Structure formats: C-alpha cells, structure tokens
Amino acid sequence: MTTSTRGAARTPAVLVLEDGRMFRGRAYGAVGETFGEAVFSTGMTGYQETLTDPSYDRQIVVATAPQIGNTGWNDEDDESGRIWVSGYVVRDPARVPSNWRSRRSLDDELTAQGVVGISGIDTRALTRHLRERGSMRAGIFSGEALAPDAELVQRVQAQPHMKGASLYEEVATKEAYVVPAVGEKKFTVAAIDLGIKGMTPQRMAERGIEVHVLPATATAEDVYALEPDGVFFSNGPGDPATADGPVALMTAVLERKTPLFGICFGNQILGRALGFGTYKLKYGHRGINQPVQDRTTGKVEVTAHNHGFAVDAPLDKVSETKFGRAEVSHVCLNDDVVEGLQLLDQPAFSVQYHPEAAAGPHDAAYLFDRFTSLMSTVREGQRA
C-alpha cells in the first residue's frame, strides 16, 4: 500500500473489481492504492468497531448505509489497537462530525492510519453486484496510483484469494495479557486470540471472569499452566481450513473435557475439531442485523456478524463425533447457514456471530452467561 494525504477530498479515485467492473469517485482517507477482498457490511451504525475489528484484515469494506461518518471518531470504541480493513468504501461521507464523544473525523482517522478509501460512488449498485457475483478481489486507486484501466484490472487479478489465506497469526497478540475480573473473581478463562475484539474479554470480565488472552500459537501446556475453568476461542480472519494449530489445541481441550466456548472463527475451529468441513460463502454475512434462531430455545435473535466462511454440518440430525454427540444449535434464518454448534455429552459450544454487541444488538449476551453456567456446573461436579 502506498499512501499520501494531500487534497484527498478533491482527488479522483477508482474502485476496481477483479471481474473488470469499475466505480469512479473521490479519494476518502489516504491517497494511494490498496488491495483486498471486497465485501459489504449492512450495519447502519458502528463503523468504528467494524474498521478496528481484526476479522476484517485484508478486506475492502463497503458500507451499505448511504451516509457514514456522522459521529466522527472517538477514543473509546476501538475494538483493537488499529484499523484492520485494507480499504473503505462509502457513498456520502459526513462533512462535519457531530457527537459529544467525537475527537476527530472519520476521514482524518483513515488518513492518519494510512487507510485508502473511496467516496461518492453508487454503493447500492456495488452491493447488488457483489451479492449477485460474490465477494471478490478488488483494489482502490487514487492520486499517483491511477493508471490505465486494463493495468489496474491486471494488478487486482494478481492479488491472492481469501480462500486459502492464513491470517489469524497476523492479527493476534504476540504476548499474553490479562483482563482482570470486575468485582469478585469467580473463574479463570484462557482466551485464544485469533483476532479477538476488545469488548469480548470485557464482557467476560463483567461476569467475574479473569481472562488470560493468549497468542494464536499457544499450546495446551500454555493453556493448562493457567489451571483454567474454561477455554475460549475468538473470532478472526482468513480461511479456517488453514488453522491446523488452533484445531489441534481445541482437540486437546476437548479431550480434557474443559468447558469451551468459541465465536466466529472459533465456531469454525470447533467444527473442524469435530470432523466437519468448512466452506467459503458466496458473499458472507456482515452487519449487525442478521436474524438467527437458537434452536435450543426457539428464540430468534438479531445478531452481529462478520464471516465469509461457514461450517458444513447437517441441520436435520444429531451427529456422532469422537467427542460424543453434536448438533447444530443456531441457524441463520436468511439462508440456513450453520450459526452455532454444541456437544451434548460434554461442555462445549460455539456460535458464528458476535455476542459482545460492539457494535450491535444485545440479543446474544446470554451466551456469556451460558459459558459461566457451564463452568459452574463442571466445578460443582468436580467437588461432588
């Protein structure tokens, strides 16, 4: 990525898709070039949390909401230490941010972090194109990076695909750290960082859990040195088919029957550990308004999503695995994609979405309570 910042709002820019479709607009944020997988997010709010979500590594995010940037950028809502998207596409950027917590504009923050974006294009047409053709490789070019159309298309087509991409180690912490329990400490959890969002350990801490966040390369010895009451596997970017290390670690956790909870990438890791396959979705689920049914209760939740891969598990039966019986616990009501798994013979479950509600609805917050209940049940059983 090459970037400059001078006169971005007046600088011509173009978004180029790998199938040759082009959208011309104005530079937004840094000026230069960037590449990634073009995906769309349907959230009408929460752009700061989206941009700083490590799961969006190497993706150019298209905002389907027409106006972006109204609330500016604050110093409290980041989900990690930086913006992870490789590019940002908006239709109508706010001219002046207006919010009591705003410290600077979204445009200024994108510029400061060197994130190349584009504004002033028909994002509705772009979203329809991606929904019909599927997520695809793309590039944003502005300023001196502009070149003849055919050359730009060739440069996009030379980029790697998301399928087969191993990205989780790129975004994970390199050193372990601790998020202390709020109030009385009730449990210790080892959280495997595959691209964890900051609000996730905070939600556990609020429930009296001391969270030890470990690198993606953590071993079973690292985990059990903490004498954890439970193990958590986080969200993260890339193709789960590449995550052999996390799958091996989860297998070790399942063998010891330690209470286990996974979200997003963690759900896909559980699927693989149980012997199910994974596959790439045509355009994925991204946004904070996705309907999911909890099949264990029948309740329908509005949930926050960010995933382009899914678990291939049967919806209509209980499956036999080497760790006992497993079933699909949650399903997307839009397209019947697997949105959760649970073991029936030991304390392990996962969901494909984000229950930490940052940004997003609070319908799924009960999942953290379900995790604490599992740990309590196992602890009581050990004392009996």
Q: What is the rounded distance between the termini?
A: 59 Å
Provide the gyration radius in Å.
21 Å
Alpha-beta content class? alpha/beta
Shape: globular
Mean pLDDT across every amino acid position: 95
Question: How are the secondary structure elements laid out?
Answer:
Elements lengths: L1 E3 L7 E6 L4 E8 L1 E11 L5 H5 L7 E5 L3 E2 L18 E3 L2 E2 L12 H7 L3 E4 L3 H11 L2 E7 L6 H9 L10 H4 L5 E3 L7 E6 L6 H7 L3 E6 L5 H5 L5 E4 L10 H12 L4 E4 L1 H9 L3 E18 L5 E13 L6 E3 L2 E9 L5 E6 L4 E4 L14 H18 L1
Parallel strand pairs: 4-5, 5-7, 6-8, 7-9, 12-13, 12-14, 14-15, 15-21
Antiparallel strand pairs: 1-4, 2-3, 2-10, 3-9, 4-10, 11-13, 16-17, 16-19, 18-19, 19-20, 20-21
Helix pairs in contact: 8-9
Descriptive account of the structure:
With 384 residues, this protein is α/β, with parallel strands linked by helices. It is built from ten helices and 21 strands. Strands 11, 12, 13, 14, 15, 16, 17, 18, 19, 20 and 21 form an eleven-stranded mixed β-sheet that branches. A seven-stranded mixed beta barrel has the order 2-3-9-7-5-4-10. Strand 4 (31-41), helix 1 (47-51) and strand 5 form a beta-alpha-beta unit. Helix 8 packs across helix 9. The longest helix is centred in the last third of the chain and has 18 residues, at 366-383. The mean pLDDT is 95.
